[in-house]
Amino acid sequence: MIELEDITKVYRMGSVAVHALKGVTLRVGTGEFVAIMGASGSGKTTLMNIIGCLDLPTTGRYILDAVDVRRLNDNQLAAIRNLKIGFVFQSFNLIPRSTAVHNVEMPLIYAGVNSNRRQLAMAALEAVGLGDRAKHQPTELSGGQQQRCAIARALVTEPAILLADEPTGNLDSESSAEIMKLLVQLNSEGRTIVLITHENDIARFAKRIVRLRDGLVISDAQQQRAEASA
Predict the structure, then answer these.
(1) Where does the chain show beta strands of DSSP type E?
(2) Domain tally, the chain
């Protein structure tokens, strides 16, 4: 499903070239739950942006569902983001004065879906245990409930991939555990999930952990040596 081959990303800051990714190769199969871990500056946010088609690599190939992403134009990239990838971010990004169900409807509105839109949004809320909160605004929801609403919004278009960037970063430990159990449940139902995190306790919910350091994927042995020498 996701195939990254020798991906590099170079940002230009005046005359300075910043090498955020230095040749990342990664494959994520259909139905996998993969956590990408790394400290600040490791390149994990850059990698997330490339996987999510929010940015393009400087060099290398990104194949998503047998499509070479670098060959797509802006409109095609936008269509992939809206239909193939569901995004969950650390900040919930909910519309403050809209109800939960209207927030969940938004991707359907952008996709031009008119029939059964409310029913699809309600089904997504039910799937994350928020059916009884559909008419509540974000300020009337707890942090964990707001993140559940954000997950429902990400799921409403039935995307092939759920891309979660530090989804528990703004939550307490109890709410974090609830969100991660929900992601595990969604994965058990066949959803492909890529999780970005810097927390070991959160990464352990995934079936596979990929570690980044200085723009490169490192092995468990390299990680252990780095920790031993720290």
Answers:
(1) 2-13, 16-28, 33-37, 59-64, 67-68, 85-88, 161-165, 192-197, 208-213, 216-218
(2) 1
> Is the confidence at residue 201, as pLDDT, over 70?
yes
Interatomic CA distance for residues 221 and 193, integer angstroms: 25
Half-sphere exposure of 105 (CA within 13 A, CB side): 17
Pairing status of strand 192-197 against strand 33-37: parallel
Q: Is residue 10 part of a domain?
A: no
Name the pTM for this structure. Answer: 0.90
Report the CATH number at residue 125. Answer: 3.40.50.300
Task: Choose the weakest-confidence range: 159-168, 201-210, 218-227.
Answer: 218-227
192 strand-pairing partners: 161
In order, the DSSP letters of 137-174 are: -GGGS-HHHHHHHHHHHHHTT--SEEEEESTTTTS-HH
Neighbouring-strand partners of residue 24? 7
Give domain status of residue 119, yes or no. yes
Per-residue confidence band for 82, with pLDDT thresholds at 50, 70 and 90: confident
How far apart are the C-alpha atoms of 15 and 23, rounded to whole Å? 22
Q: What is the pLDDT of residues 100-125, one digit of tens each?
A: 999 999 999 988 888 899 999 999 99
Confidence of residue 225 (pLDDT cuts 50, 70, 90): low
| Residue 99 lies in domain | 31-57+72-229
The residue type found at 75 is: N
Question: Tokens 């429902």 sit at which residue?
Answer: 152
DSSP 58: S
CA distance 5 to 3: 6
